[in-house]
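Consider today's protein:

***
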Amino acid sequence: MERLGLFFVKRPSFLIVMVVVALIGLPIAIWLDLKNLSDENLKRQAGSLNGVISSVRSYYATNVVGRVVSTDEKTQALHNYLDVTGAIPIPATLSLELGAAIGAAEGDVDYRFVSDYTFKNRPPHALDAFEQAALDTFRDSPNPPANIIQSTGNIWDRKITLATPVVMSGSCVNCHNSHLESPKKDWEVGDVRALQTVTVRQPVALNIWSFKWLLLYFGVAGTIGLLFAAIQFRLAGRFSKMNAELAANNEFLAGISMKISKYLSPQVYRSIFSGEKDSTISTERKKLTVFFSDIKDFTATTERMQPEELTDLLNEYFTEMSAIAEAHGATIDKFIGDAIVAFFGDPETKGTAEDARACVRMALAMQQRLADLGTVWQLKGLEHPFKARMGINTGYCNVGNFGSDARMDYTIIGAEANLAARLESIAEPGGIVLSYETYAHVRDIVEATASEPVHFKGIAREIVPYHVKSLAEASPVTAIQGVDDNGRLTLDLGALDPGTREKVRDAIRDALQQGSPAMER
């Protein structure tokens, strides 16, 4: 069954052909059955009519023509015609005996002539409820209907009975009112003398089989439908199971991808999962802006801290710096101890100049955030908050996947990357040092001072470092250590430039001198 279902799934044209054939077959089956039903009804009606005519002909031949031919005497119309030679039946007697003859033929048509006024030498007629009600209606209603119809039977055998009145004519009135055996002597023209009924039977079972082609069509269609439903049910079960497995796998892969994203920079993560990057060992040469930073005197600052405290502090530092790097579009290469290596220009780039400007803005934002965190950390009891040194260089590097077929790393190598690390090493705590290649792109957004040319290990050319004015020097706000509940302000004078430091000292001295007389009093 599964193979059959897969056959139709792979070849939907066969299913379309079957539907078209079914649509064409339905009117054909209906036409064949209507033709068959018409033929059967015509045959039954012809047979019933033939039986009625045969009964009338036989009765007429025997009781009318035969009796007239067999005698030379004058023919009379009598109700007891059998007792008189050559006599023939009157209409009422004809109707009674003809109805019995037709009924004896065992056809689908019955004829009855019944009256509640029978002659004295005749047995009374047994009227059923319908006949009695119809007779009363014809006699008592001021506007009686021409006929009354009753439908009876069950779902397998239906009968239709048509009742019509027998109305007295002038000759009938004279005969009945003068006859010795008549039960009623005051008949008038127009009176309802009796009732004649014609009952036609139509077995429903025979009509049902008249629809053999339609039944065959529905049987075949139903079988095919059940088979198709069973196939669809099986396929739906399989698809449901597959969907559940796919949902579980997708959920698992989503969880795995979220975990993997913690180990990759957002740009690298997106490029890998979008298919832009392949997991093959390959590199390309690009002009990048490389950023390198580490924490000044990290070991001395943290040697008295417990491992758990150090872990929390370092993770907070990396979290804050990573958020700034991501906001500016940096690709974080790696964390090396307390150092951060990042670069701009791959896998996404906005051009060399804009990449350099974004990197410098990132470094300034990091120093600003680090200064703010220093205030918080000091309030928490950290005597010497972290201060980072940062170096930035712009130049050509090899970037891509390095390693083995089993284990690789997305990183950068080259002398220009090393130069960023060398520039970081000569930066002041809280400072940023640029190479000329970087400074040339950002000179309009930062103020930097060139220092004496330096020869760095591993760098053949002479380098002129450019020291960016640090945010710590530019903003005295970072020197505020906090305000306690009594309104006492704590300042870090070492974080202020000499001029500002002297102004603060003078202001404190003047305040103390103004408060001294009040204190003495």
Residues 12-69 form the longest helix (58 residues). The chain has four domains: 108-210, 211-261, 278-474, 479-521. The chain is about 50% helix and 20% strand.
